[in-house]
Amino acid sequence: MVDTMLRGYKDIARVGLVGGGVIGTGWAVRCLANGLDVSMTDPAPEAEARIRETIARTWPTMEQIGLAEGASVDRFSFHPTIEAAVDEADFVHENVPEREDVKTSVIAEISKHLSAEVIISSSSSGLLPTSIQSEALAPERVIIGHPFSPLYILPLVELVGGEQTSAEAIAKAAGYFTRIGMRPLHVRNEIEAYIGDRLQEALWHEALHLVNDGIATMQEIDAAITGGPGLRWAFMGIGMGWHVAAGEGGMRVNMQHFAPTLELPWTKLKAPPFTERLNDLVVEGCEAQQGDRHWLEMEQRRDQALIKIREVIQEYWYPEDQDGWPKVRELP
Amino acid sequence: MVDTMLRGYKDIARVGLVGGGVIGTGWAVRCLANGLDVSMTDPAPEAEARIRETIARTWPTMEQIGLAEGASVDRFSFHPTIEAAVDEADFVHENVPEREDVKTSVIAEISKHLSAEVIISSSSSGLLPTSIQSEALAPERVIIGHPFSPLYILPLVELVGGEQTSAEAIAKAAGYFTRIGMRPLHVRNEIEAYIGDRLQEALWHEALHLVNDGIATMQEIDAAITGGPGLRWAFMGIGMGWHVAAGEGGMRVNMQHFAPTLELPWTKLKAPPFTERLNDLVVEGCEAQQGDRHWLEMEQRRDQALIKIREVIQEYWYPEDQDGWPKVRELP
Predict the structure, then answer these.
(1) Domain check: are A78 and A111 in the same one?
(2) pTM
(3) What ipTM, to 2 d.p.?
(4) What is the dihedral of CA A215, A219, A220, A224, to 10 degrees?
């Protein structure tokens, strides 16, 4: 398995990028910084200048993170057509607008110009790979590789295969993403919005309801995240955040504590029924992440991380917002 | 208004705590570190020993954050009854189990032993203040003061008044919370789960559905947060995270980009209708937070903060989880 993976990514020297918005340009920056050649296309008239400017602007950040040997902005080229951009590519990212018909036809077009073993990775945020691979030649090499902005810094990339995607394509793509410094998360079940955007969208829809119903402003919603749970989510997620918060007993205690409130109208999203099976899945998932670490050690590390993260935010984000919280604190 | 606030918190020297679980003990730690006297009660037989042990264990963390003048663990006392714990208190936190009947009767009991100007702040995560203040003497001084774990580090506290709560009680409580290093967010509309837990519960219910439907494990869900959006949420929230990610045009561009996907089944939580009014509320809320900062400056600061936060997590949380992500990355 590892051999397949290594064989896969070692072959990749040139990446083709189709579509140069925020996501496409992010791939260009990450790939260049990781020492790859990048060939790109985008139909907008001002695209090349804008993309080159963004790469140049972001390069000092990538130098700070650390460039791979041989990495250079000079290894970027811009091309007038999809054919020219993907011509010699060993891996292609599709980054066109989030419409199923558009992505499906662009992926079909890309596939015509590539030999069958070159992977086409769609940056879709939530469309089904089975749909968008349907018109491609050699559809078994079409996957979703869904990143998160700013993708040149954030490590997560979700890999999702469609009905026709081969296991080898997923393995090869995982090797490639690891090679460019990312953490591939294989979404084993094909589902719209995958895992990350399911969660983002749930949070977002609830926020939109709060705004729409006149309960809270966008500022108050952001403040309610950044002052509290968001700080834990950054490194613990929601499961481990509550697992460690509970102290002795962890999520096993917390789930019993939460069970009655699952029925309460605390969100517009109705919970699934609280069954023993669901309880066990959640508890065992948290305990597996804990491993043989003692909860007191996790508490201590959590607290240290939170103190330091707050110091970073104070230093690098807007200290005047952190100190007095003037834009959100409302005293009557 | 400021005068009322200052008059309020300057009077507070002793805090009474009723209920000594994770939240009650967290208040004890925060209040002691901020130089207050703390009188506490909890009916569990082992409670006093456990609480004292937790305070002692957490004290070095509070020393690291910085103790107020005169702060001492010796200013903690434990009492056998509610009456004794709140007897000389200038401010009382109620931290008993999350059941409306229990909280309502405990708050009624607390109120009998306090003069009418002493605020009773419930640590409820989502119950309506109008309900739990209903049997109290002088119900106008009953508020919700909802913290987030670990409450001795996280600054957010949501203040919610019920129908009978006075504006003065909210103002006085806001002054007190600021005095003990917190950021009071006044939830202007009484609603179950307030703002912070609406958002947490939406995320949580979506996560439970993913687990329940066999789509993802708890580990994969946490990984999908910590590798990507969670890192932004820590300091930008969801609105500003997307506002800055969009580059030029910010959320005004992103909302148009998101509009078609709001209709897609990307979460079990249906979005409100996408209206011009909702669009304006979201966009203007983000632009107000931006103020006259240029998006290029915000992008630069965001990237610096993200790089440093990732370094903190690498150093203080579990580096072996960050490096290889062995527990969540699944290659087929």
Answers:
(1) yes
(2) 0.94
(3) 0.94
(4) 130
